[in-house]
Amino acid sequence: MNWKRFINAVIVGFVALFVMDLIIHVLILGEIYKPLTGTLLRSEADMNSKMWAYYIGAFFFTLLFVWIYTYGVKGKGVIEGFRYGIYIGLFYIVVGSFMCWPIFPIPGVKRKPQQLQIQDCW
User: Fold this and answer.
1) Fewer CB atoms near the end CB (10 Å): N or C, the chain?
2) Which domain, by its residues, includes 31?
């Protein structure tokens, strides 16, 4: 593997992720998020105090995405594409959950599993 290209791809991907987040979540959807802040979303101060988790998650998201692409894409057909999709899906669930924690106030569930309803999960 060419480490210089790998590191450059991680840096460019990390910057691109933040630029796209800025454009989408601040410039385009910022006004829509304002009424949700403090209710569905954490308060701005609470979010800012936990953003370290988002930055770590975003770094690992980019690092793993580049690594999986580097090792996962060899141009060998449909099975390879299916395997690549599974890898991306699994890592997105784990890293995406880590990145959502600073944004959404997810309280502990105080009901027994038999009492859970679908709205408790969404």
Assistant:
1) C
2) 3-121
* Gap between the Cα atoms of 59 and 82, Å rounded: 25
Is pTM beyond 0.85 here?
no
| Tens digit of each residue's pLDDT (9 = 90 or more) over 57-100 | 889 889 988 888 887 777 778 888 788 888 888 877 777 777 77
CA atoms lying within 13 Å on the CB side of residue 64: 17
Who's near 95: CB < 8 A, 6+ residues apart? 57, 60, 61, 64
d(CA 10, CA 61): 9
- Burial state string for 77-106 with b = 16 or more CB within 10 A and e = fewer than 16: eeeeeeebeebeeebeeebeebbeebbeee
Number of domains making up the chain: 1
